[in-house]
Amino acid sequence: SHPPQKKKKNLSSVHKLRNKPNIMTSTLCSPNYFTNLKELKNLRSSEDLPRIICFARIKPSCSIRAFNPMQAARFAPEKTSCIETSRNERWEKLHELAAHHTNDKRVPVFVMLPLDTVTVGGSLSKPRAMNASLMALKSAGVEGVMVDAWWGLVEKDGPLRYNWDGYAELVQMVQKHGLKLQVVMSFHQCGGNVGDSCSIPLPPWVLEEISKNPDLVYTDKSGRRNPEYISLGCDSLPVLQGRTPIQVYSDYMRSFRDRFRDYLGNVIVEIQVGMGPCGELRYPSYPGSNETWRFPGIGEFQCYDKYMKASLEAAAEAIGQREWGNGGPHDSGHYKQFPEDTGFFRKEGTWNTKYGEFFLGWYSGKLLEHGDRILESAKGIFQGTGAELSGKVAGVHWHYKTRSHAAELTAGYYNTRNRDGYLAVARMFAKHGVVFNFTCMEMKDWEQPGPAGCSPEGLVQQVKIATQIAGIELAGENALERYDAG
Questions:
Q1: Could you give phi then psi for residue 120, rounded to 5 degrees?
Q2: Sign of the C-alpha dihedral, residues 329, 332, 333, 336?
Q3: pLDDT tens digits, residue range 210-226?
Q4: Is 81 inside a domain boundary?
Q5: Which of 70, 272, 392, 474 could be a cystine partner for 467, CB 3.0 to 4.6 Å?
Q6: Residue 14 lies inside a defined structural domain of this protein
Q7: pTM above 0.90?
Q8: Would you name the residues annotated as active-site residues?
Q9: Domains of the chain: total
Q10: 35 pLDDT exceeds 60?
């Protein structure tokens, strides 16, 4: 089976669109010249991946090549800078930022640092290797790097007890090399998804609260709890030792701002605000752990914790349809199924009825409200610092060619053949002046399995139009690692 589009832990090509013409793309190529993507996606072990990454001197084509140690001799005559990487470092991302440059033809590249750049103890991991890596990246013409600021590491010792020391060391090192830094406010757990090379759970004191009250996390109709992220159903309830989740996220971002005030806007140029699993504004409808879901399954609705159920009941009562508030759709199928296997998502299914419109409007609306709350807070905290704000939206491209767009619906994007689900997200981002960061920019329709009804190209085009209408910038990153020949 094919893995899903996924996250920011990859070494791959990336595209960054700022709604400007003539944007170039950067491409990473493999020495093994994998031309069959199915063959590539079957690779699992670290031995399958390159252990040395060499960045050719930047040319107008912005071509970047990666190759393994066995082929290093072949490239000896070329002027290259090499970085010896650890296993975790194989999962890197190329990420771009165009807002800080006047030359529209130049495509700045940001490289995602390893997920465990900061250790569990709060210190910078392998500082000598990091210093050498940053030096090589700078000489290669890279604009900067991106790092996750994990909630589970920084606030692990207790509420309001923050340890930013490892990140402070990184910021100073990045500045020393004349690079820029993008920081992700990562309020989700690391581990259990494609590309996750280490495990960083939520803070221990938060997990303790979850053990006392399991409804604090997203829950599916079978009662499976997902520990990746706090349920948005309790956003405004003081369930975390007297603070609401939104207050906790706000205090965290405020602490970051105060600690790094002198670097914001000059070294730290972008803050990406995490709003869900994998840092994306979505529900955990396609969890990667324990074989619960497999690509290209439709996923499941995540609205069965007591807080979400109470909200649904209230919404149904408000329109005089109390029976519509008894949980989510009963005929929406299971994680691994296809749309036509279900009564809800099939061609003329329940999704296209008054009930379907009510439920999907409520489900997607709750997600938009969640993003609005967090971004409103982030805007107030970082306003005037010079750092740009961004938010990430998942590229759920499978079953895009079907009428219901089932996989998008379970993720929280009310996008169907009859309705544009991304314009509402773009307008919410525009309200706060936030860059719309979208994944799966590197994917092509022809590369996807036919039965899955995928159209990453169509999805990207739709999102591009939505951001243009909303008047905001569209940023992009790769979803999976790539090894292109040429």
A1: -60, -30
A2: negative
A3: 999 999 999 999 999 99
A4: no
A5: 474
A6: no
A7: no
A8: 280, 477
A9: 1
A10: no
Cβ(276)–Cβ(229) below 8 Å: yes
| Rounded Cα–Cα distance for residues 108 and 400 (Å) | 30
Identify any residues that bridge with 184 across adjacent strands, giving them in sequence order.
Answer: 148, 272
| H, E, C per residue of 47-77 | HHCCCEEEEECCCCCCEEEEECHHHHHHHCC
Between residues 17 and 243, the one the model is more confident about: 243
Rounded distance, CA 2 to CA 397, Å? 13
Q: What residues make up the domain containing 275?
A: 110-301+366-476
Assign residue 160 the CATH number of its domain. Answer: 3.20.20.80
User: What are φ and ψ of residue 463, in 5° steps?
Assistant: -65, -40
Nearest Cα to 471, choosing from 421, 431, 422? 431
Adjacency order of strands within the sheet including 80-84? 27-29, 63-67, 52-56, 80-84
Tell me if 446 is assigned to some domain. Answer: yes
What's the sign of the alpha-carbon dihedral 143, 166, 192, 134? positive
DSSP letter for each residue of 274-332: --SGGGBSS---S--STTS--TT--------SHHHHHHHHHHHHHTT-GGGGSSS-TT-
> CA–CA separation, 349 vs 454, rounded Å?
20
User: Do 301 and 328 contact (CB within 8 A), yes or no?
Assistant: yes
Strand partners, 83: 53
User: To 10 degrees, the CA torsion angle through 162, 167, 172, 173?
Assistant: 160
Element (H, E) at 141: none
Q: How far is CA 252 from the centre of its chain?
A: 19
CA–CA dist 250, 235 (Å, integer): 12
Inside any domain, residue 454: yes
Q: Which tokens go with 67?
A: 């190759």
Sequence-distant (6+) residues with CB within 8 A of 239 are: 209, 213, 216, 245
Residue 449: Cβ within 10 Å count: 13
Query: Could you tell me what percentage of the chain is helix, strand and coil, using 3-state DSSP and rounding each to the nearest 5?
Result: 35, 15, 50
Answer whether 366's CB lies under 8 Å from 373's CB. no
Type of residue at 402: T
pLDDT tens, residue by residue, 168-207: 999 999 999 999 999 999 999 998 666 667 899 999 999 9
- Between 20 and 212, the more confident residue is 212
- Largest Cα–Cα separation, the chain: 75
